[in-house]
Write a structure and sequence with these properties.
The complex is a heterodimer of chains A (152) and B (234). Chain A has helices at 9-17, 40-60, 70-73, 79-99, 117-128; strands spanning 4-6, 29-32, 64-69, 106-111, 139-141. Chain A is of the alpha/beta class and 152 residues long. In chain A, strands 1-2-3-4-5 form a 5-stranded parallel sheet, sandwiched between helices. The radius of gyration of chain A is 14 Å and the shape is globular. Chain B is of the alpha/beta class and 234 residues long. In chain B, 38% of the residues lie in helices and 19% in strands. In chain B, β1, α1 (12-21) and β2 (27-32) form a beta-alpha-beta unit. In chain B, α3 runs parallel beside α4. The longest helix of chain B is centred in the middle third of the chain and has 21 residues, at 94-114. The radius of gyration of chain B is 17 Å and the shape is globular. Classes of the chains: A alpha/beta (152), B alpha/beta (234). The A-B interface holds A 40, 44, 47-48, 51-52, 54-55, 58-59, 72-98, 137, 150 and B 88-90, 92, 94, 97-98, 101-102, 105-106, 109-110, 112, 132-141, 143-159, 222-223.
Chain lengths: 152, 234
Amino acid sequence: MQAHLDVPPDLLDAFRTAGVGELEPGAPSILAAPAGHGDWPSTLEALTGLYRKARAAAIEGSPVVFLVSSDALLGRTGALNAMAAMGVVSAARTLALELRKQGAVANCLASGVDTPRDETVQWSLHLLAGSADGPSGEVVQLGGAQIGKALS
Amino acid sequence: MRTAVVTGAARGIGREISIRLSRDFDHLIVVDMSPTLAETALKLETLEVRVTPVQANLTTDDGIAQVVESVDAVTALVNNAGITRDSRLVNMDEEDFRAVLEVNLGVPFRLVEGLADSWAGEASVVNIASRAYLGNFGQFNYAMSKGGVVGLTRALAMSLAPDVRVNAVAPGLTATEMIETIPDDVISRMVAAVPLSRVGLPSEIADAVAWLCSAESSYVTGQVVVVDGGRSLT
């Protein structure tokens, strides 16, 4: 499979191992929410980078999976991480609405620090392969650690 | 003395929140970059509350400092200032993306940082989000900023507990200047999707904010109160 990948290095290796190859126009995108930035300007810069890639996907009408941290969604890893993660979820829902006429989907995949990388890779590919009638604008939570929490 | 700070107070929902909070607070610090803030201040002075208007651009360090220097102890902070720059993502300029994020999300974060040493006991922060945080066509930037506000609310609810409660109010379609440019037939279609069959009033948003600033919500923190006439269900 071909995909635009903007994910942390450890996940990048896992995607490569799973056979996800070089990007080409019209390929789907797997984009990680910004995390670990120490101040607002650098967080805004990272979100702007994500905006550029999401816009490119919107222009191509190609599907997108956004990777977010469950702990960040719940505000457990600091304000800047929470702002970025929940911001990406809301942006993904909006992108899902805008992509609908083009038959493409946008979803979020939420995982924890203990989530096996292979699981993240397989679910990302599964969500990218979905039809317009499948899930879109959703937050898919891996594992059961956050059951009962206000995840999104 | 109970002091409340309200940003974006010159008009619309922010002005109405200021008027509503004048019943519950001794001192209101009203903030806006617009000179029409003076009109809100004049109105508040007739309501027998001490008023300190701060005309400032909160996207700058100087603007944040102006607010911080105007307070001794804050009992309530209402982060209301916000802007829109709507378009489909395919047509959205980077400048418009960044402007909305900077004002709607960066300002609340920076203001809370600036006020870190200024909280009175049992204080309350209310961040004005939007129903758009659930996703809204043509508002990639605005939805992201308001989702970010919800994330900020959750993180602060934990980091500032137990002394400060932090919640959000997410208004739906509300009768402010922001919707005056929308054609009537479009408004009619939007209202048709609202179970309560009407546009919300700024005073109804202000009442929710006042509740979250009051002791009546003393066991509520980290939550989003959606005030949208039921629109998020249809």
